[in-house]
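Researcher: Here's my situation. A collaborator sent me these components and asked whether they could plausibly form a single complex. I don't have experimental data yet, so a predicted model of the whole assembly would be a useful starting point for our discussion.
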Amino acid sequence: MRSGKLLAAACAVLFVGVVSAQEVGKPAPVFDLPAAGAPNVRLADLKGRVVYVDFWASWCAPCKQSFPWMNEMQAKYGPKGLTIVGINVDKKREDADKFLTGTPAKFTVGYDTTGKVAEAYQPKGMPTSYLIDANGVVRAVHVGFREKDRDELERELAAALTAAGRR
Amino acid sequence: MKRLMLVVAVAALASGCSSMPKVQPWEKGNLANKEMAFDPDTLETRFADHTYFSKEGASGGAGVGGGGCGCN
């Protein structure tokens, strides 16, 4: 009996480090991050708007591909109530800024140099995006970015705006 | 007591490095560096592979799929 308990304890040790990721239907963790050339970007300030949070890094190739698409979406749906927030997870802000000079972002960029926000969201890859509805609840999660994902992602954005009564 | 120590030792061994903090997807900046790649120069690797396969008269075997029939 005693060894059974010990075995259970040993098994518990094996599973340490398993953390649950951010899921659809749950409230999105709030953040407050320094932004590029603007006051801090806070999720709480964006209530009532549909927010597309995208985790990216300067060393991530698909992220580079996703930027023109996000610029396009921000221009198209921004006036209808969409805010795109690109959260950079580089340890050094200079790396991110160097990336941004070559790949300009026409949406809000927040710097998560400590990785605290990434820890809260647990993105499974780079880039990972979270579509957050007007009430601050995660509506969709998307890992990676491929050219063929464009249309589907846009449909999701549009549907979220419709659901929020912003279209 | 000895049994307890044995169980603890087995647990520690079996868990290996899994109790250490894992490198998270957003922390892979250093791993993404060019010098961390298996093949530092993709073009050169392909060139070397091509030479190797030509000499052997067969393709594949140096990585993923591909038979040894020399037909692809």
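Model: Some features of this prediction you could bring to your collaborator: Residues 29 and 68 of chain B are 38 Å apart (CA to CA). The radius of gyration of chain B is 22 Å.
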